[in-house]
Amino acid sequence: MFFDILREDYHEQHPGVRQSACRRYCQSIFVMEAPPHANTDEQYMRAALVEAVVAREEGDVPIGAVVVRGTKIIGRGHNQRELLRDPTAHAEMIALTAAAAEVGSWRLDECTLYVILEPCTMCAGAIVLARLKRLVFGAIDPKAGACGSLYNIPTDSRLNHSVEITQGVLAAECSALLSDFFAKKRAQGKG
Ligand SMILES: [Zn+2]
Fold first, then answer.
1. Is 51 a catalytic residue?
2. Minimal CA–CA distance to 26: which of 54, 5, 61?
3. Are residues 41 and 136 in contact, defined by beta-carbon separation less than 8 angstroms?
């Protein structure tokens, strides 16, 4: 129910989004002003969940991310690994690229990235390279997470930049979306 409401909202705000077939298209369509009330971690995480639902509709693992500067969402991304047949097309990478295009610089030191799942090694590396101020994620990923689970790249003091991390925001909703997706996949595999 929760995700159906999100999806309806999303399609109202983003008509034609399902035709998205490339990163550049997504970057241009996803840069938009956040509503004035969207000023808490939970509200931005809900925007990341909306992105995740779009990934699911396109046949990808439902992971979504947004980049926020001040009170404005300046980059959105959802997992497009299958759609683009690109191993680097993770939600975080696409959102960071979109945000950098919006800012006009690779340096995103005033920005916060919201993503529904603990980032992997690649995305955690990109988060440090972008000099991000803060990372907020929902569910932890004990199998591949690089922000506290297997590694903790964003706060590794050997690197030249450290990123503040908040975890567990809307964790129940974020893990439910992912576990439902994988449960359905398994059921389809058996049927
Ligand atoms: Zn990743």
1. no
2. 54
3. yes
pTM, whole model, 2 decimals? 0.82
> Please, is 183 exposed, middle or buried when counting C-beta atoms within 10 Å of its C-beta (0-12, 13-18, 19+)?
exposed
Strand order in the sheet with 164-167: 72-78, 64-69, 111-117, 134-139, 164-167
For residue 126, the number of C-alpha atoms closer than 13 Å in the C-beta half-sphere is 19
User: Across 83-177, where does the E strand assignment appear?
Assistant: 111-117, 134-139, 164-167
What is the tens place of the pLDDT at every residue in 146-184? 999 999 999 999 999 999 999 999 999 999 999 999 999
- Distance (Å, rounded) from C-alpha 17 to C-alpha 14? 6
Q: Please tell me the distance from the alpha carbon of residue 138 to that of residue 173, in angstroms, as a whole number.
A: 8
CA of 126 to the centre of ligand 1 (A): 9
Q: Which residues contact 19 (CB under 8 A, 6 or more apart)?
A: 25
What pLDDT, on a 0 to 100 scale, did the predictor assign at position 189? 86
Angle at 118 between CA 72 and CA 58, to 5 degrees: 75
Q: How far is the CA of 78 from the centre of ligand 1 (A)?
A: 11
Cα of 191 vs centre of ligand 1, distance in Å, is: 30
